[in-house]
Design goal:
The longest helix has 16 residues, at 185-200. The chain has 232 residues and is α+β, with helices and mostly antiparallel strands. The protein is built from 5 helices and 7 strands. Helix content is 26%, strand content 13%. The protein is globular.
């Protein structure tokens, strides 16, 4: 009877996929937050799946996920929902992005319309190290809760169907700076609304990207992780 028991244990171990201590899958904390994890597919600035993304799943540290759920609860009272594009990013994914930029190439009208690919690091749009590998940074926007919004922007993730923020996620251009002006009045209002909600929940914004927020009291401020993004 020992052999069947060992086989059962081996089968369980093969399917178990524990995250490092302190990390959770966002859907286990708040399944109402929409997920559109861009680097697990083709709809990103590399136009391919990025190393380390084995599933389109948001993983965060537990405190970041809890704080984000608080923002979601406030949003839903207004008929809105958060939509996340990237969460924890493995260090191998960051390295993949860096290698890709160094291959060089011309500007891309959708993702980096005025910058050569080889200049994306120097211009600060792609980092050789990323806060996202610490697990408490999230890229996100806001969408209407009960219906699909129309596509708005010509730069960045144009098919994300969010509210109008003036640009899409991952538009590598000065127009993506949180305080950029001029912008359409509604885009300015939407950026202000998102910024206020995230600040109230304990997140700080990266001023060059309106969608980029990091938990102020992050649990791993000096540690980067490299486990893959998986579904279970």
């Amino acid at each position: 009877m020992i052999l069947p028991a060992l086989a059962l244990l081996a089968a369980f171990s093969a399917h178990a996929d524990p995250l490092p201590a302190g990390f959770v899958r966002l859907a286990d904390v708040d399944p109402t937050i929409r997920q559109d994890i861009r680097y697990a597919g083709l709809g990103n600035f590399l136009q391919r799946e990025v190393d380390g993304y084995e599933a389109p799943v948001c993983i965060l540290t537990a405190p970041a996920a809890k704080a984000l759920s608080g923002v979601q609860k406030a949003m839903t009272t207004e008929g809105l929902t958060l939509i996340v594009f990237d969460c924890y990013r493995p260090a191998r994914a960051v390295a993949d992005m860096v290698r890709w930029t160094r291959q060089g190439g011309p500007p891309d009208p959708q993702w980096y319309p005025t910058v050569e690919r080889g200049d994306l690091i120097a211009e600060g749009y792609v980092g050789e190290l990323s806060s996202r590998s610490r697990g408490s940074t999230v890229d996100l926007a806001v969408a209407e809760l009960d219906k699909t919004s129309a596509a708005h922007s010509a730069c960045g993730a144009t098919d994300a169907r969010t509210l109008d923020f003036g640009t899409g996620f991952d538009c590598f251009d000065s127009a993506s700076e949180t305080a950029h002006r001029p912008l359409p009045l509604q885009a300015t209002a939407n950026r202000t609304m998102l910024l206020s909600a995230m600040r109230a929940a304990g997140f700080r914004n990266y001023a060059r990207e309106w969608w980029h927020f990091t938990l102020v009291d992050e649990p791993f401020p000096k540690q980067r992780f490299d486990f893959p993004v998986t579904a279970d």
